[in-house]
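P.,

For your records, the input lines for the assembly:
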Amino acid sequence: MWKSSVKPVAAAEVREFDHEADVVVVGYGCAGAAAALDAQASGADVVLLERLSAGGGSAALSGGEIYLGGGTPVQQACGFDDSADDMEQFLLAALGPDADAEKVAAYSRGSREHFDWLVGHGVPFKESLWDSPTWVPPTDDGLMWMGEAAHPFAAAAAPAPRGHRVTSDGFGGKVLMQVLGEAVAKAGIPVHTDTGAQRLVTDVDGRVVGLVARREGRDVTYRARRGIVLTTGGFADNAAMVATHAPVLAGLPVNSDGGDDGRGIAMAQAAGAAVRNMAAGQVGITLVPGMAVRGMVVDERGQRFINEDVYPGLIGQAALFKHGLRVWVVLDEQAYEEVPEVERWGVRPHHVAETVAELEAEIGMPDGALQTSVAEYNRHAERGADPYFHKAERWLRPLRAPFAAIDVRRGMSAPEYGDTGGGAEVFTLGGLRTTTDGAVLDHDGVAIPGLYAAGRATSSMHARGYISGTSLGDGTYFGRRAGVAAAGLR
Amino acid sequence: MWKSSVKPVAAAEVREFDHEADVVVVGYGCAGAAAALDAQASGADVVLLERLSAGGGSAALSGGEIYLGGGTPVQQACGFDDSADDMEQFLLAALGPDADAEKVAAYSRGSREHFDWLVGHGVPFKESLWDSPTWVPPTDDGLMWMGEAAHPFAAAAAPAPRGHRVTSDGFGGKVLMQVLGEAVAKAGIPVHTDTGAQRLVTDVDGRVVGLVARREGRDVTYRARRGIVLTTGGFADNAAMVATHAPVLAGLPVNSDGGDDGRGIAMAQAAGAAVRNMAAGQVGITLVPGMAVRGMVVDERGQRFINEDVYPGLIGQAALFKHGLRVWVVLDEQAYEEVPEVERWGVRPHHVAETVAELEAEIGMPDGALQTSVAEYNRHAERGADPYFHKAERWLRPLRAPFAAIDVRRGMSAPEYGDTGGGAEVFTLGGLRTTTDGAVLDHDGVAIPGLYAAGRATSSMHARGYISGTSLGDGTYFGRRAGVAAAGLR
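Structure tokens returned:
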């Protein structure tokens, strides 16, 4: 499974540590940056390790949405009231059932302050709303809906848009990491790149006191006087680990910076850490939300399975876990034309046809499958209703010839919006069990002394559902808390 | 999470062991019985521990199907040729993708000999075939199809029925455990009941040398000179563990003897063991296969999602993981009447109606949902085709008024076929990572010395799919191998 052991090394076996700090943060994505910044702000001296040659992590590849609410200045400027309670209720519904209620509560209550922390470090958010379903606004708008007003979530909590998108020309993750990187540099936190953590070092009582890393082919040891924070990311790049724990994700293209090998999780497990919800994952698919919401999303039997106005990540999740990614967006010419060029992400139909029967045959669906679905959709749409899935009336209109379809497994074709070569791309959401302060728990549910974690190395808030913005959001928020805790102040 | 620690105890802390044996087998279900029998047959002296007041485990509650093939005498008597290769290919398809190929190969090649072992210990199989989809034959027939001839499995391997059902008046699991229990008694293997294993005992090198159990409120220690075999079952009874690892199963009624608390898995994990595929599970639902196959299985949108002639466990799995168990069997009067009384399991329709529109409204489906599906089904069935899901022509016929529907979440009402109070009932399939000889692997993929496991405490052969008969089958087969290995002969 691993080329070298992931088991902890006994402290007695380390004659002399090469480096020493109060807090050693492992992995320089958004969670690592946040942990390092707040550990240092808490008075600890910190060193930040990164396996690759530069920081950024998967965060730098992301759209740059951060899920924030409770009445942020951006929400207020766009005319939305919000409360921590509504945010909490929405997250429990959207990330659950069985979301981590304690973390969701902490995150929702801490959100306003966390917004200020981000802005204080220089993270830019524009005070304008993108008002249509999207993965990321194709403009520089700073606020977006994450399905809060869609069925069934509108009934769970008073809807307010909470997707805060870091201002950027395209994907915002790179801007977030640039800003946090500047903050790390300004704070004078040493960053050791090309340094991959291999094993933890534990003392006779099981306390984590350091780690062994690999740099330029040789072992380098770090002593952590107060604590280690693992922010090493998920395990999407480790095919064996994916097959072992998240088989539905196996064999699919991966969304990561290439460093999500799961070793941070495994080396903590080998030191006694428990994990949670390891089968969880998310998928980005070639689905233009502006097209999907004006048309239908169907499976290989031509059957709809979701209201197309939810956050598109939920469509991706249903497509992956329930429909084997054999999913198409079906729309008509009018719907396609209504989507502004900027919002099309370069996606053009993979199939076009004058009749639904022809389209169905061209895709290879059973005779009558799509015809039946479109007829039913149209019959109800005529009167502005969607009794099947409750898409909002705003988006309902009978579909008329000519028709088109987009296969969600095929790649997008607008490289300016990030690397989208792969069509469907997955990442993992399961990981280490941690407290709200990032303490890593063992199989008794007891914190392992000296060991903390945040970001995708942990299982964080999600259970069955996932909403974008919670990765950068919980990575930075719980990263900060882990940094403070590792510094010994909690 | 646990009332008392699951962490291993250092051997140095145990002054004197209360009991001692070459091999200590923990858990007296089918895997434990098989492990104990073959460990002893290999020359080891053995003690068998059981947490409850009597052996049996979940095996005793089961239908009594054992998946066996490669040309058993029962298959031959019923006129079927079979080969280990075909069995292997079927299992790879039905338990996968990503089934444990090494275990499937070993199991398929060992199947003929394993049949002889079972029969040699007195397990009865009648040489007659039940030739219609079923959970368990309602007669005493000894051979049944497990979907081998259904789409898409018929294309994966030459079909032969491989469900070998222990002869019984009703469910066969109790007979299997009675016979194995007699064998254990005859072999003179001591059984310590009311003895729940709590923690492993490890020496300074990490070798497992014993365990601490709890009996009548006090600790009892066991030394294992050669090895410990954990056959402690799954974790379906542990709500916290289910929520942590298999959230889709959370909150549902459980199929177990009440002893599947997962402690065996957790105490091995705390001693460094790795796990696999912990989110996997299976569900038994109130679905009479004879009715389903003559009608349609639909979700809450009235949409079919599977060919109804597969093994019903696969319908249950799709219903649970993809359709939230909001699933109905829809059939007409003729179909219902065609199902012999003995095959009805006491199930009567929960809804009846003269028209599909009425049935649809009564169930609460969207207007047009079921009407559309039945019309499509009938249109194709008229010409003996099912282009949507490829159900065999034998079962295709247009459905005609009057109509009926059965809600799969409601309980069956024939207690003579086992305890069926709960409607849908789940169990877990994930567990410890083991080799084909039952050695428990650590996070480096290296066997933990002295520790073996089999049955539902392990993740065994399954990945995404599950077929009944592989629980009793792999439990007994890999239980035997673990017993032999623990005895030191492999």
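Two observations worth noting. Chain B touches chain A through 48 residues (CB under 8 Å). DSSP finds 14 helices and 21 strands in chain B.

Regards
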